[in-house]
């Protein structure tokens, strides 16, 4: 079978290759999926580049997210699952076999049903982008009646976060973006107020929009850049949930935070408890089944263009998700 591999940490063009290798075989509790689409996420390129430490072996097939059809099952898995359409998560975390190949074997519980009316390309966006958005929004409980700020409201995660916040009953949704094109995407997703942080005074707009009270919840894509703004923008008892940061270490405004009783939550989706992960999968599927969700796929590229795909994600030039057709 054809698969993408890299044998060392490095730049995409230097280390990624397409190779032929034997079809994988299922073990107990596992399923084999004929991959139709593979999602390319920032964490995938950060693992490949070494920005995220990854002390597991080589060679590796990258990408944690994907979608396809189960074509074989291992001992202990219901044979009726053969032929089932699924989306995949966590395939490449702590493992050397991700979704950037024609077949992948994963534990059965690393898959979730993919509705017949949802494309494989969309399915490849659900493992990290959609699931991260939903976990961030619901980590601290019900958001009905809350004011939510989504940083990067047109990004892969942020675009889902704006839409899910609307579905989950948030009273007001604010979103930050960096361009007029992204602003339109965030508006169409359901943001009540979109803030172009390059041309507007972000904090002033937030305070004006909330009558000086601040926001109840922030879903943050880059904590090291925005932490001071976030603390200033949060209401008393507000919650800051961060899933990303461009810097590994930075200063936190502790005094300002504690005086407002601000709560901080940092998470990486790969380490969620099994029960929470299953809950998120079910809720993502339920929200999508309600309809009216726009899946922002920036580009679908063939498997052999994986270097280009990684470079697009690393550059930040893509507005939305990058997916490989396998």
From TrEMBL:
Xref: InterPro entries: ADH-like_C, ADH-like_N, ER, GroES-like_sf, NAD(P)-bd_dom_sf, Zinc-ADH_QOR/CCCR
Keyword tags: NADP
Domain Enoyl reductase (ER) residue range list: 12-324
Origin superkingdom: Bacteria
Signal peptide boundaries: none
A Pfam family annotated for this UniProt entry: ADH_zinc_N
SUPFAM superfamilies xref list: GroES-like, NAD(P)-binding Rossmann-fold domains
Keyword Nucleus found: no
Protein name: NADPH:quinone reductase
Species the sequence originates in: Sphingobium yanoikuyae (Sphingomonas yanoikuyae)
């Amino acid at each position: 079978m054809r698969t993408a591999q890299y044998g060392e940490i490095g730049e995409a063009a230097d280390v990624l290759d397409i190779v032929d290798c034997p079809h994988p075989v299922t073990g107990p509790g596992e399923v084999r999926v004929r991959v139709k689409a593979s999602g390319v996420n920032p964490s995938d390129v950060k693992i490949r580049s070494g920005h995220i430490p990854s002390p597991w072996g080589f060679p590796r097939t990258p990408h944690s997210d994907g979608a396809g059809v189960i074509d074989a099952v291992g001992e202990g898995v219901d044979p009726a699952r053969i032929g089932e359409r699924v989306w995949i998560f966590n395939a490449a975390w702590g493992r050397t076999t991700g979704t950037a190949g024609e077949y992948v074997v994963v534990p059965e519980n690393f898959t979730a049903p993919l509705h017949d009316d949802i494309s494989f390309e969309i399915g490849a966006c659900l493992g990290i982008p959609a699931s991260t958005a939903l976990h961030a929004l619901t980590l601290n409980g019900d958001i009905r009646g809350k004011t939510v700020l989504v940083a990067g409201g047109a990004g892969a995660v942020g675009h889902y976060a704006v839409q899910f916040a609307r579905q989950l009953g948030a009273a007001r949704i604010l979103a930050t973006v960096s361009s007029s094109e992204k602003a339109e995407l965030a508006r169409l997703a359901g943001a009540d107020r979109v803030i172009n942080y390059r041309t507007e005074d972000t904090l002033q707009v937030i305070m004006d929009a909330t009558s000086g009270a601040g926001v109840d919840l922030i879903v943050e894509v880059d904590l090291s850049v925005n932490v001071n703004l976030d603390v200033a923008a949060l209401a008393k008892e507000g919650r800051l949930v961060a899933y990303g940061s461009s810097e590994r270490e930075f200063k936190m405004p502790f005094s300002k935070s504690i005086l407002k009783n601000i709560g901080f939550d940092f998470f990486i989706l790969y380490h969620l408890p099994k029960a929470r992960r299953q809950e998120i999968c079910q809720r993502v599927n339920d929200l999508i089944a309600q309809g009216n969700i726009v899946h922002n796929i920036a580009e679908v590229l063939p498997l052999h263009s994986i270097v280009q795909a990684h470079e697009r994600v690393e550059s930040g030039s893509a507005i939305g998700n990058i997916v490989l057709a396998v």
